[in-house]
Amino acid sequence: MGCASSNTADTKADRLARWRATGIVGLRDAKLKSFPDEVVELDRAVRTLDLTNNKIAAIPEEISKLTNMQRLILADNLIEHLPTNMGKLQSLKLINLDQNRVSMLPDELGQLVRLERLSISGNRLTTLPETIGSLRNLLLLNVSNNQLKFLPESVGSCYSLEELQANENSIEELPSSVCNLIHLKSLSLDHNKIPPSLLKACKALQNISLHDNPISMDEFQSMEGFQEFEARRKKKFDKQIDSNVMIGSKGLDEGVDL
């Protein structure tokens, strides 16, 4: 591991004191090539760690010492693997690993039972661990721009899930358990290979995006459950209009993208 550069020991001391007082460690665009030692020294004081846009290739096992950390943001790095002991970070509510080189998530991910937002778009994932179903408080799952051919059946156990983004993969079929997600409001599946039939059982769904999939608008509108989906979609946008919320140029068609 390495440290962020500093001109004097006092500068480092001041920085550590500030991080310890606020709980926020921000080292975006710091030209780091390795995980900074000094962050580990803070252990339970860290609540937010943001190392976006560096050249960090590895996350050390010692990250497990940051047991009070709630937000871990590691986007735009060179990370290939995650330590298995990340499961000890029981306070985590948000993980952002967008634009890295991760090919596999450890099974221990399922131990992060407080996790609410997981974004790992733009990586090299070919599968997701079955243990992802243990994330019962997950609200957002973004696995877009990977190499996924399927989602695990256990994803239907993420009962709190409201938004699922899986654009730009090679998914051919969704598990039937997706329709167990009664809170799911937004489903984005652009650029896959899915002929979906989701509308009947996904009773909370308000937005679905299916650009570049083998389905036409006529086929979509003929699906069982379409009328109920359409009613939810229109109700959502009527509320936005009543609240003077500006909607896009597509108007009420924005909830369906084919």
Verbal overview:
The chain is an alpha/beta fold and 258 residues long. It is 16% helix and 11% strand. It is built from 4 helices and 10 strands, in the order H-E-H-E-E-E-E-E-E-E-E-H-H-E. Strand 1, helix 2 (37-41) and strand 2 (48-50) form a beta-alpha-beta unit. The longest helix is centred in the last third of the chain and has 17 residues, at 226-242. It is elongated and about 65 Å long. It starts with 8 loop residues before the first helix and ends with a strand. The model is unreliable at 1-9 and 245-256 (pLDDT under 50).
Features:
disordered C terminus; 10 strands; 258 residues; elongated; alpha/beta; Leucine-rich repeat, LRR (right-handed beta-alpha superhelix)
Compact overview of the structure:
The chain is an alpha/beta fold and 258 residues long.
Compressed to H and E, one letter per element, the order equals HEHEEEEEEEEHHE
The proportion of residues forming helix, as a percent range, comes to: 10-25%
Strand order of the largest sheet: 1-2-3-4-5-6-7-8-9-10
CATH superfamily of the domain at 103-257: Ribonuclease Inhibitor
Number of helices: 4
Largest beta sheet, briefly?
Answer: 10 strands, parallel
Derived from helix and strand composition plus strand pairing, the structural class reads alpha/beta
The multimeric state of the shown protein is single chain
Gross morphology is elongated
Distance between the termini: 47 Å
Count the strands? Answer: 10
CATH topology of the domain at 103-257: Leucine-rich repeat, LRR (right-handed beta-alpha superhelix)
**What is the CA-based Rg, rounded?**
21 Å
Average predicted confidence as pLDDT: 86
Proportion of beta-strand residues = 5-15%
Low-confidence stretches: 1-9, 245-256
